[in-house]
Write a structure and sequence with these properties.
The protein has 262 residues and is α/β, with parallel strands linked by helices.
Length: 262
């Protein structure tokens, strides 16, 4: 779906800000990016940045890429860098259980990424994401214990990984600085975890549901966040880039409209 259409519908649904989206979706030149967003009465709030940080031999290269993205985000007006600790393999079909030395390497990599983010006036948040090295509740627990990184609480990805997003939100109290709102079809999520269905195919089949129509406990997480001021950073409603559900031109997606009304 073209960026102009997405931004137009985003504004039409009442949103006032957006994330950068996948690489190449929006202009990387900050001036062009700002002009495009201003034309749709939007501002940039954050951006998703994947990086391999548990492998010492590639850390310097990966942090250089994080620096480049951080510069784009900061000059585009964003406040948050949302980092996913990816495995180094293509796609998000399977995560990776780290060894103790790899967890130590990840902690050092996150410290480096945090320094980059601060240098550009951004807040670094680590995004638990299905198919990465930090997926579910146990991974988040170790992240909280071994680093001082803030968390991007992605309700959908946590649920797909088999975690209870509400429980993770409670345990990460004080460290959640950014939230991605997604709801989840429990049946499809279970099939993904059992490797009966690829993650990519599940997304195309409707893995992520309109808010309030899945099992992600979205309302409870939002209420929990609103009652805990230290959790309140920024929040966005997300649709994965691999989704292929395209509404007719000129009309906002009913799925997105129902989610926004939720």
């Amino acid at each position: 779906m073209a960026a102009e259409r997405v931004l137009s519908e985003t504004c039409g649904l009442g949103f006032t800000a957006t994330e950068l989206g996948p690489k190449g979706f929006l202009p990387e030149d900050p001036a062009s990016l700002r002009r495009l967003l201003e034309r749709h009465h939007l501002r940039l709030v954050a951006g998703f940045v994947p990086a391999v940080l548990h492998v010492e031999s590639v850390r310097e290269r990966e942090l250089a890429a994080v620096e480049e993205q951080a510069r784009t985000l900061a000059e585009g007006g964003a406040a948050v860098l949302v980092l996913a600790a990816v495995t180094g393999r293509e796609g998000y079909e399977a995560g990776l259980e780290l060894t103790d030395p790899e967890w130590s390497a990840l902690a050092r990599g996150l410290a480096g990424a945090g320094a980059i983010a601060r240098r550009h006036g951004l807040e670094l948040t680590l995004h638990p994401h299905y198919g990465t090295v930090v997926e579910g509740a146990r991974d988040v627990e170790r992240l909280l214990a071994s680093t001082d990184a803030s968390v991007c609480l992605d309700i959908g990805h946590l649920a797909v990984a088999g975690a209870d997003p509400l429980e993770v939100a409670r345990r990460a109290d004080g460290r959640v600085r950014h939230v991605h709102l997604k709801d989840v079809d429990a049946r499809l999520a279970e099939r993904v975890r059992r490797r009966e269905l690829s993650y990519h195919e599940a997304v195309k089949q409707g893995l992520y549901r309109p808010l309030g129509q899945g099992t992600g406990r979205v309302g409870e997480v939002v209420r929990c966040s609103s009652h805990r001021a230290t959790m309140a950073g920024t929040c966005s409603s997300r649709t994965p880039s691999s989704t292929r559900i395209l509404p007719r031109a000129g009309a906002p997606s009913r799925r997105r409209e129902r989610a926004w009304r939720f």
